[in-house]
Design a protein that fits this description.
228 residues, alpha/beta, Rossmann fold, six-stranded mixed beta sheet, four-stranded antiparallel beta sheet, 6 helices, 10 strands, globular, binds adenosine-5'-triphosphate, transmembrane transporter activity, ABC_transporter-like_ATP-bd, plasmid
Length: 228
């Protein structure tokens, strides 16, 4: 990474799905530890931008650099390994493995990176405590409330000490009280661990928890003034 280069840097991103232009020359820079809200109308390209930044979707044109390396230049295996090691994900729903308990779900990313069972369980439990959901440790995702499930998902995203958490409408299925608490916990825990957060949301009160808001319109993000 060259001196002064942001942790995540995208420029000139274009992505179409058939005739639909989802990204039209999009660029964005995210600094280490920065919490950025990505907002904008439905269909403006927010999720596509997040997927390109995370290396899940390959753009038709443009570049995404993470820690000084261009994601699209990495072989698939290396990109997957990097995603597992450095990135965490929180989606609106459905990201927890239904057959595993909540504790096992949080321990899973650690087990996948070779952490021993006992240590993985201990670290997972500490994260459930931090997210105030130890009571669901032994339950399966289908047996817990939406808010509890999202807290478990946040714990799972951060347990590996991810450097970037990508969150796509993490509170979209929650009532406003639960939604705000999950945002608080997600951004608070990310700040403690130094993780950057790219947060796609419609939550109007999100500004209070973010360093910066970016609004996507017609496939291009525009920076609002830094949130004070
Ligand atoms: N896999 C896909 N196949 C076809 N079209 C897609 C696909 N993904 C996105 N699109 C289209 O690309 C455009 C941008 O979609 P995207 O999901 O990025 O927007 P968004 O801003 O996240 O929307 P929302 O707020 O409704 O989630 C939309 O017109 C959408 O229909």
């Amino acid at each position: 990474m060259t001196a002064g280069e942001p942790l995540l840097l995208a420029s000139g991103l274009r992505k179409s799905f058939g005739p639909t232009v989802a990204l039209d020359g999009a660029g964005i820079a995210i600094g280490a530890g920065e919490v950025v809200a990505v907002m904008g109308p439905s269909g403006s390209g927010k999720s596509t931008l997040l997927h390109c930044l995370a290396g899940i979707v390959r753009p038709d044109a443009g570049t995404v650099r993470y820690a000084g390396r261009e994601l699209s230049a990495l072989p698939d295996r290396e990109r997957s390994a990097l995603r597992r090691r450095d990135f965490g994900f929180v989606f609106q729903f459905g990201q927890l493995v239904p057959e595993l308990t909540c504790l096992e779900n949080v321990a899973l990313p650690l087990r996948l990176t070779g952490v021993r069972r006992k240590e993985a369980r201990d670290r997972a439990l500490a994260w459930l405590e931090r997210l105030e959901v130890t009571e669901v440790a032994g339950q399966r995702p289908g047996e817990v409330s939406g808010g509890q499930g999202q807290r478990v998902a946040v714990a799972r995203a951060l347990v590996t000490r991810a450097r970037v958490v990508f969150a796509d409408e993490p509170t979209g299925a929650l009532d406003s009280l639960n939604g705000e608490r999950v945002l608080q916990l997600l951004t608070g825990a990310a700040r403690e661990t130094g993780a950057a957060v790219v947060l796609v949301t419609h939550e109007a009160r999100v500004a209070a928890y973010c360093d910066r808001e970016v609004v996507v319109r017609d496939g291009r993000p525009r920076d609002l003034a830094a949130v004070t």
